[in-house]
Amino acid sequence: MEVKKLSISWQFLIVLVLILQILSALDFDPYRVLGVSRTASQADIKKAYKKLAREWHPDKNKDPGAEDKFIQISKAYEILSNEEKRSNYDHYGDAGENQGYQKQQQQREYRFRHFHENFYFDESFFHFPFNSERRDSVDEKYLLHFSHYVNEVVPDSFKKPYLIKITSDWCFSCIHIEPVWKEVVQELEGLGVGIGVVHAGYERRLAHHLGAHSTPSILGLINGRISFFHNAVVRENLRQFVESLLPGNLVEKVTNKNYVRFLSGWQQENKPHVLLFDQMPAVPLLYKLTAFAYKDYLSFGYVYVGLRGAEEITRQYNINVYAPTILIFKEHINKPADVIQARGMKKQVIDDFIIQNKYLLAARLTSQKLFHELCPVKRSHRQRKYCVVLLTAEATKLSKPFEAFLSFALANTQDTVRFVHVYSNRQQEFANTLLPDGDRFQGKSVVSILERRNTAGRVVYKTLEDPWTGSESDKFILLGYLDQLRKDPAFLSSEAVLPDLTDELAPVFLLRWLYSASEYISDCWDSIFHNNWREMMPLLSLIFSALFILFGTVIMQAFSDSNDERESNPPGKEEAHEKSGKTEPTFSKESSSKIPKKGFVEVTELTDVTYTSNLVRLRPGHMNVVLILSNSTKTSLLQKFALEVYTFTGSSCLHFSFLSLDKHREWLEYLLEFAQDAAPIPNQYDKHFMERDYTGYVLALNGHKKYFCLFKPHKTVEEEEAAMALCSDLDSSLHLGESRGKSSCGLGSRPIKGKLSKLSLWMERLLEGSLQRFYIPSWPELD
To answer: What is the CA angle 667-671-672, rounded to 5?
Structure first.
């Protein structure tokens, strides 16, 4: 019994020692070992290390634990002296060589396996494959970081689409879709689709940048634009999603009717044309991805050989309909430049085939970028590249000099020579630099051999002495130049700096603007209806708030206008006004302190009651514009006055009034005495003294500075003749000679309104301060 107890105690001691060792290993703190704080600088860490190393070095310190202590000091200094290891330790509690994400996965794997082995849990019981060996083996090589995504993945998305998965730890749905994801990755990666995986727990910045706030999320990236996948995660849906990312006009369907037009487009597009013959009705995804990758260099077409309208093209090019065939056409549409035919074509085979036929035999230099690619800068003596340039005029059909130049390029076997041509009328500065001086080259084709020396445009060149006609002698001379150049690179004796080429195929500004607008609208549509709602909520809230305020303001204004109309026109008062003949629907006679409403001009009558407040004690800088009228002309003149001054009612310094000529004629004539140029001084013995017509006069009164400006209506010749004719008719019909000049022969309502026809111009001059001012000593009393 005692032996049994002793064995149990020994087992307990062994377990306790192991636990203490594990805890001490886990409890290793380099800061505590060196005796420095977590904010210590590298100089403080180095100083503490040197001090402790001298103290605990085994050769100097004979303590039995000195060696272990020295090892801990060295390990602590190794961690803290390396910024990367120190950062990993600060963030993840460990300073291993791997990143924090992988290290935490290893720690989590160790703890889970240790837990599993001690308690005998069968992993198949729960089916939770959370250990990193099984779960991250597929995703590990596709992990994306923010800098890698921005600097490499986004630029590369203009050549191939990317399929990106957002995942995280303890994500049960991520585990559920893992078999499908693995199968799709193996298939699409072989076709040329980029694959990426973002761990939301350790790349939160990138996950937020992508707009993924839940896991798992799958999104596509193409041309820098992000599109989210919203269907069930099955192989066919993911394949269709990737195919939907590609533009719809990448591959043109070619038949007997349009194959000549398609292949003849090489001259306008300056690209070789590719034709795929296959038995599938739909264009294969591999071919679409290839077309997207090389869309800037080649045009792609697809011929469905099972279609009834494809027999002629299939027979003309002798196509084997039982195997996929790819033809590349360059300047000659009757014969392909290269052919490849095989069952189950691989991406690498197609890429090599395309790259070998990326340019035309004698491509046209249409941009500076194409010039850099076709005629690269010399890197070394062994990497010399020469360009034979044909300077020719633009023509709808192939000219004889160009055909001869093309045949010479086709017969060329030197890899160091590239043949190109330039339209002289489109690239005038470029052509003039290479053309020799003289009139004999004007309007003719010229051949020049050049070598680029740097990216700034410096070249050495040699131009043929005679124009290029395409004759056999011209070809012989050009061949001799190339042979001499191969033997002596100094043969190119001329030197020049070429200007940059203009981009001939660039869309015009309007088209670029339309493309940008359509892309922006498409992005907004996708963001609002398909992408993450969290990022769009602030924008949607702002839009709906603005719409709510706008419609609320319109509705309130509509109701207020309707209420104002009811209040301004009560039934009882309307009848009373109609009886009295003083209806004024658009003017208010209330006090001037009331704010004018929309569509109204507030005009008050100048009487002995309002005279002091509206004129004598008017605030500095304010003016009262007074209309002179009579009882008979009141309605018509007020209506015209309101129309003329309505645009000036926004000024708070202007007040509008009217003065009755029948009541205050003497006051008016007293003021007019100070404006003798504007109106003659009346004589009280004049028999027409009381008949002088001042209606339509307008006075702008400045009460503070005691001056006024005068508007005097001017009758036109037509109005005077009409008035005379009207008066003569009335005299002859009524036989009343004494009525001449009185109200019976006065002007009608239309001539009366015409008196104020130029009032708006006068008001503009009034605000400008360019009107003549008439000063008075004091304002007279208004009786």
So the answer is: 115
